[in-house]
Every structure is written in structure tokens, then in C-alpha cells.
Write a structure and sequence with these properties.
single chain; 456 residues; 25 strands; binds shikimate-3-phosphate
């Protein structure tokens, strides 16, 4: 679907965002491998999370029917979800799912290749779970996922004892589960997916598993395991874990702060106040708010509850009077890795140059985002360039133009947000990509007052 975004509208009010994608992947995996029943509320309809459910359905017995239902979006409470373009539907409510786990030992050999769709998190986390399962499973994905590096996760899992084959370092990935032993793992690239895969394997390993990251990444796996009473602790610069079989649990998935980032940016560009309720406020996900503060965007947030170790609450955005250029240093990158596209589109509206230094990891995301951002900003009438591993964005605003999401969900939303403050209307092609993480994105911004319509 292609849309025309007409600038100049105010975006204000109160809203919610879909359930957190990162957390939903982890909690679904933990529910499907728990001993006993779990009830998850507020699961997002995003395609990525359904990919995890689809793969887990193929690996489970008792848990299969509800996981299948959710994955297929077939009947019952999941009916009608998933459409980016539907102003009538309330897509924010999320889905409730009851899953009966048989423990890790209850996992069954899949009869087909496990299709991870567009989701790197699905593939890497499941590789960790399957590393100890006594059968062979093959993980595959769509053309974008098939280009992404998998040795970074296969390497440590092999070291733990699993037998894993990648295809020239990329998917498909064949995992032959084995008896595992703990390792001390010091990744060279900071990655929450890789850390989580090793920790999920460590739950089934003999001895201690330690992950010592070169820089902090999101800690949802650690928090969930601690809330489930697993023997996990962080000290001496590493996460330490021992073998553990967790029980079932009940929890409500917090709203996704990475989805909220697009709405905060949209409100800031419109100079409006906005309140976002029920958002996950895990500090390892909120560094983008610090970067936004440096860019002149004032927000406050406060937690009002905790779900399986995750703080949840409200983010309030104050009216913004102008975007300030920013310099993002390499140490910050792992903590804002998913928000760089929207921060970059904000930066295009600053008065001077902004820099994102040593951002090469963006090249191996759902698309080469370093290039996609530079091309997208240029196509919308701005000036941006890749300079080796760095990204430089000249301020001065966007003139308006025509840009394509090129199949990347975060680019689809970032381009729409940037276009909201351009000097003339813009056409954005392929906005349905947003369904991967934020089904209902267009309906949400329409509801807040944005002017977006289907391109003729
Ligand atoms: C994620 C970790 C990040 C992030 C991705 C979700 C996770 O990837 O970009 O969207 O849920 O663990 P990396 O681990 O590759 O940095």
C-alpha cells in the first residue's frame, strides 16, 4: 500500500501502542517450554511475533492449538487483526493466549522447516532453545532474513555442544540438539538476540553459563528468568545462569517503547502534547528518550506496575518548539539500535548536521538501514550520506518527495513520521511493511490527527 502524507496536522491526545515485540517473543518461548499452564495477555498482532508462535506450534504438543490459532490469525479473538490500513478497527487491544507447556523435555521434532518469516529474533532465540532438543530442526526465513548473519549465534551454541550448520553463515540454519555444557561467552558484537539464545541454551546446560557483553543490550530474558525464580544473576561484568526448568506464568505484555518512539517523534514534529499509556519502561529500552532530550524533545515517564520483572507506565510528550542536531556516539548504538531510523528522520528537521557514529551494525538489520536512511531522507528532499560506518544527516528540513519502505517496517514508519513535517506532501510506498511490528500504525496516527490517505 502506498500513501500520501500531508504535513501540517497536529498530532495530539492519548494513545497506546501494540505489545512489545521483543518481550512477546521471549514470553511465548518461555510459555511453550514451561512446565504447566501460562496465560499471556496483550500479545501484539505483529507478524514477527506470529512467526515465533508458528514455529513454537510446530515444536509442541498440548500448546499447539492456541499457538497455531494465534499464528494463523484465523478465528476467535485474533480475527481481523494485522491490517495497517483500517481506521475503523481498534488494533491496540492485543490478544490473550493460554498455553499449556510440557517443559523443555516435551518439545517434539518438527515435521517441516520452521518458517521464521522476517524475524531475526525468532530465528536466533529458537536456535538457543533447539540447541538442547534431541532432534534436528531447520530454521528458514524470508529473503531479508536469509541475508542476515547467523554465525554470531551458531558459534557460541556449538561451543556449548550443539551441532549447527548455517548456509555460508546465513539461514537456513540446521540445529541438531545435543547435551550442552555451560560456557563463558564474550561476544564481539553486542546483541540481545545472541545473548538470549545462549541464556536459553544455558537453561538446559550442565554447569554455569556466563555471558559478558561488550556493551549493555536489552535485558528482557534476564528479567523474565529472574521473575520465574531461575538461578540467574549479574556480577563481575557478566550474566551468570545455571540449569533450570521454569513453571508456567501469567503476565500482560507491556506496550512497545520502540513503537512509541515513532509516535513521540510525530508529536514532537507537530509541536503537540501526547500521552502514551501502558508502555514498557525497561531502562535498557529507553535510551532513545535521552537522545531525544538532546534533540530538544521533552518527555517524562513513570511506571505504575510491573509485569514479569518489566516496569510499565506512561510516557508524556511536551510540545516541542524545534529539533536540535545531535551527535550519537558508538557506545550508544546498541541501546538505540531499533530507533536510529526515526531519530535520523527527526535529525533531518534540525538546523544543522547530526552524526550517528560507527553505525555499521545497521547494515545487517531487516534491510541495510544505513543506506536505507540516507536514500530515504534524500528521496524526501533532505540531505544525508553514509560515510563509511557513520551516518551524517544535514538539517534544514525535508522538502517532500517520494520514498519507499522497501519492505522494512521501521523505515516505513520513520519515513511517514519524517514526511509529517516536510514542506510539501510526500508519497511513501509499501507502508504495509509496518505490520511486522506495528499493525494499525496508520490508523493510530490518523486517530491522533495526522493527514494520511491512500495514494491514488
Ligand atoms: C532484539 C534485539 C536487537 C533488535 C531487534 C530485537 C531482541 O537485535 O535490533 O529488533 O528482541 O533481542 P540484535 O540482537 O541483533 O542487536
Amino acid at each position: 500500500m502506498d500513501v500520501v502524507v500531508t504535513p501540517g496536522a497536529a498530532l495530539r491526545g492519548e494513545t497506546t501502542v501494540p505489545g512489545d515485540k521483543s518481550i512477546a517473543h521471549r514470553w511465548l518461548i518461555l510459555a511453550a517450554t514451561a512446565s504447566g499452564g501460562s496465560r499471556l495477555v496483550g500479545l501484539p498482532r505483529s507478524l514477527d511475533v506470529r512467526s515465533t508462535a508458528r514455529c513454537l506450534a510446530a515444536l509442541t504438543g498440548k500448546a499447539r492449538p492456541p499457538l497455531d490459532l494465534f499464528a494463523q490469525n484465523a478465528v476467535g479473538p485474533v480475527e481481523g487483526g494485522g491490517s495497517t490500513w483500517n481506521a475503523e478497527q481498534d488494533l491496540s487491544g492485543g490478544i490473550a493466549l493460554e498455553v499449556e507447556g510440557d517443559g523443555r523435555e516435551g518439545l517434539v521434532a518438527p515435521t517441516e522447516v520452521l518458517d521464521c518469516g522476517n524475524s531475526g529474533t525468532t530465528m536466533r532465540l529458537l536456535a538457543g532453545v533447539l540447541a538442547a532438543a534431541p532432534f534436528e530442526a531447520v530454521l528458514a526465513g524470508d529473503p531479508s532474513l536469509s541475508r542476515r548473519p547467523m554465525e554470531r549465534v551458531a558459534g557460541p551454541l556449538r561451543e556449548m555442544g550443539a551441532s549447527i550448520r548455517t548456509t555460508d553463515g546465513r539461514p537456513p540454519v540446521a540445529v541438531y540438539g545435543r547435551e550442552l555444557h555451560g560456557i563463558r561467552f564474550s561476544p564481539t558484537v553486542p546483541s540481545a538476540q545472541v545473548k538470549s539464545a545462549v541464556l536459553l541454551a544455558g537453561l538446559a546446560a550442565d554447569g554455569e553459563t556466563i555471558v559478558a557483553e561488550p556493551a549493555q543490550t536489552r535485558d528482557h530474558t534476564e528479567r523474565a528468568l529472574a521473575a520465574l525464580d531461575a538461578p540467574i544473576a549479574t556480577y563481575e561484568g557478566g550474566v551468570h545462569l545455571r540449569r533450570f526448568q521454569h513453571r508456567g506464568f501469567d503476565a500482560s505484555v507491556p506496550g512497545d517503547p520502540s513503537a512509541a518512539a515513532f509516535l513521540i517523534a510525530a508529536a514532537a514534529l507537530a509541536g503537540s502534547a501526547l500521552s502514551i499509556k501502558g508502555v514498557g519502561l525497561n531502562p535498557s529500552r529507553l535510551h532513545f528518550l535521552d537522545v531525544m532530550t538532546r534533540m530538544g524533545i521533552r518527555t517524562v515517564h513513570a511506571a505504575d506496575r510491573t509485569e514479569l520483572g518489566e516496569p510499565v507506565g506512561t510516557i508524556e510528550v511536551a510540545p516541542c518548539s524545534g529539533i536540535v542536531a545531535v551527535r550519537v556516539v558508538p557506545e550508544e548504538l546498541p541501546l538505540i539500535i531499533d530507533e536510529v531510523p526515526v531519530l535520523a528522520l527527526l535529525a533531518a528537521h534540525a538546523a544543522s548536521d547530526s552524526w550517528f557514529l560507527e553505525a555499521a551494525e545497521l547494515r545487517v538489520k531487516e534491510s541495510d538501514r544505513l543506506r536505507a536512511i540516507a536514500v530515504g531522507i534524500t528521496d524526501l528532499g533532505g540531505v544525508a550520506a553514509e560515510e563509511g560506518p557513520d551516518l551524517v544527516i544535514a538539517g534544514g528540513g525535508l522538502g517532500g518527495g517520494r520514498a519507499s519502505a522497501a519492505g522494512d517496517h521501521r523505515m516505513a514508519m520513520a519515513l511517514m513520521v519524517g514526511a509529517l513535517a516536510a514542506r510539501t506532501p510526500s508519497r511513501i510506498d509499501g507502508v504495509e511493511a509496518a505490520d511486522v511490528s506495528f499493525p494499525g500504525f496508520v490508523s493510530t496516527i490518523l486517530g491522533l490527527g495526522a493527514h494520511v490517505e491512500p495514494a491514488g
